[in-house]
Amino acid sequence: MRPGLHIIPLVLMSFLACSTLRASEPYTRVTERPDGDIVLEMCTRTFESKNPDAPRIHMVSAIHIADKSYYSAMQELLNGYDTVLYEGVKPAGLDPIDPELDDESKVKATQERLDLLVSIAQMYRASHGHYPSGYADLTKSEDRRIASLVSSIRTDAWGNNIATRNSLRIVDDVKSAQIEYVSYGADGEEGGEGINADIISASDPVNPDEAPADSPEGIQTQLANALRVSFQLDEMDTTNPGWINADMDVNQLQHALSEYGEDSSELLKMLDGESFGAKIAGFVLNFVARSPQLSSMMKLVMMDLLAFAEESDLLADQGEAMHKVIVEGRNDVVIEYLHETIADHPDYDDIAIFYGAGHMAGLEKSLSEMGYAPSSDHWTQAMLVNPEDTGLSAMQVKMMRNMIKSSLQQQMGR
Q1: Per the confidence metrics, is the pTM higher than 0.70?
Q2: What is the DSSP letter of 237?
Q3: For 3-33, what is each residue's pLDDT tens digit?
Q4: Interatomic CA distance for residues 278 and 220, integer angstroms
Q5: Burial of 68 by CB count in 10 Å (0-12 exposed, 13-18 middle, 19+ buried)?
Q6: What sign for the dihedral angle of Cα 142, 144, 147, 150?
Q7: Which residues of 242-272 are buried (b: 16+ CB within 10 A; e: fewer)?
Q8: Mind listing the pLDDT tens digit for each residue in 328-344?
Q9: With left for phi above 0 and alpha for psi between -120 and 50, is residue 197 left, alpha or beta?
């Protein structure tokens, strides 16, 4: 992976990906109001089919950090549709397991599910100070994401219940707590060999008397804090009935990138806030967050950058993997979900695709091939900056924005 990619937050990835397509019209725009406020707006574009019995498709442009009011508006809008196919690389083991898989594939799928349960148990411990005693603790968690995840992954690939085992050991007066999730294999009986052997995933042993270590904040959360805006995952409820996480899982993403010779591990560490680059970026963002003027200034720069990125080939030199995997590959996934949804629910009138603007050109092309054409646009305010909050004069703000745009255009060779 090229060094430059390491410091690009995922919130920008879809915008800055090297797409060779252009949407029918932009999905992002920055406008200046008569009172001087500068506003970033995101588009919802409705598509209608030549087939009168086909559902309307609403392409809802997502942004992963924005003003809180934007997410309230999006929640209300999206909850009004029959279903929402939304963006978000998900953990491996979350999707339903195909009962037609061969036994070797079922073992692998079950292991992924057990590993996911361990990760969820560790999330639970981070907020509660101890591991869950069973599924009841997880399903009653105040974190709706934990409860939603667990409800669909309590059985293995053979349809048998996954067991929970908690252990507490004391060696030389030192306590050690651990949680395990266990599948008893194809026969559902403890022990056995081959496909009947037990499959186990266990957490690292921890001292139950010690408070869990704080996890580093992800780079997107740090960026949201610096700009004094909200992070999508903290604001939107994707557990509502009809919402479908129509994206790749982490293993699929890593495998797809590896086929282009890219190592995704550093990128994922960056997003989790664990890499050296993330720590440097975090230091800068924390500095910005302390100054209301710097925060407003950076927010304005981000707004202009997002609008510019959609209409440009910015960062095209990041390589083929960025486009083929991050954009095209994930577009293929959501279109597959769309076909399945239309086939399975002929009663649906309105289907939303809630994805980043950088995906929209490719998705529009697929919709056109399905006989769809755009019929209307609706714009929603995502971010607002009062130029006075930057501490600069109106003329200085204008000069700064023009300088940044000129610099970006020079970088693009325009």
Answers
A1: yes
A2: -
A3: 333 333 344 444 444 445 566 789 999 999 9
A4: 10
A5: exposed
A6: negative
A7: bbbbbbbbbebbbebbeeeebebebbbbbbe
A8: 899 999 999 999 999 99
A9: beta
